[in-house]
Amino acid sequence: MVISCSVFRGKKQLEEKSTKIHNQYEQQNLQFHQKQQDSLSSYWYFSTDSAFWFHPDSGIWAKRGKIFTHQSNIKRAEENWQLRQANSEAASVSDSRVKRENKVVSAEFFAIGGVMLAVLGYWIWWRRRK
Fold first, then answer.
1. 3-state DSSP of 48-99
2. Of the ranges 7-11, 61-65, 102-106, 126-130, the best mean pLDDT one
3. What angle do CA 4, 7, 12 make, to 5 degrees?
4. What is the pLDDT of residues 83-93, one digit of tens each?
């Protein structure tokens, strides 16, 4: 049982570390995208296999290949990130409550177990004495 508890604890710590790293990545990614947004808070990304240029009247041009565009509203990404942060904080508060409750339960379990062992020891001693 001790081994399974330590495995569970190690797995939980690994999950927490993974979540923390993912949140740090998302925060850095969000900060990067915030620097590349237009006046409408939109992020634009263009990709092609050749050089391309932009003309105000006709848009984006490239010599060959395809141009991929991606537009996403950075405000929505920021709101989603803040919501995930709030959920993560609420979950950590909930986890700490569960840990405290588990400690109380385990302390009660050991106290009851100790009393039962003492009673069993006394009973064995009393039986041998006869």
1. CCCCEEEECCCEEEECCCCCEEEEEEHHHHHHHHHHHHHHHHHHHHHHHHHH
2. 126-130
3. 125
4. 777 777 766 66
